[in-house]
Write a structure and sequence with these properties.
mainly alpha; about 100% helix; single chain
Length: about 130
């Protein structure tokens, strides 16, 4: 028998002895893991059951808070509309005042020109009277 054949035979014998042992150890480890996982699931279920009243209380509190929040939202929208209306009114007032000031300026300019023309005409008449004398 060659050394390679002897090595393969030794490995076969070793495998026949060790693999069932390793399989049994792996099976025991898997059973332990499943038992612990089962315990963890049971504890999680119990914790969730304990939290159920707390979650219901939180849900009720949120429902109670919803009405005031709706009121605040409506108030906020009202304030926004009031602000928009105030801005629009201010813009209209500015335009109106600007138009009125332009009109007043034009009227004052016309009155000034009329006075200047009247004064010029009066001065011309007075000079004419002075020249006739």
């Amino acid at each position: 028998m060659s050394p390679v054949d002897e090595l393969l035979e030794a490995l076969r014998v070793f495998s026949n002895l060790v693999l069932p042992t390793l399989g049994a150890i792996a099976l025991i480890a898997l059973i332990v893991l499943l038992v612990r996982l089962s315990t963890l699931v049971k504890e999680a279920t119990e914790r969730i059951k304990e939290l159920k009243p707390t979650l219901e209380s939180v849900d009720q509190s949120i429902e109670k808070i919803q009405a005031p929040l709706d009121t605040v939202v409506n108030l906020s929208h009202s304030v926004d509309r009031a602000q928009e209306s105030a801005e629009k009114a201010m813009a209209q007032a500015k335009d109106y005042i600007s138009t009125q000031l332009d009109s007043l300026k034009s009227n004052l300019q016309t009155m000034k020109e009329e006075r200047t023309a009247a004064n010029t005409a009066e001065n011309t008449i007075q000079e004419g009277d002075n020249n006739h004398e």
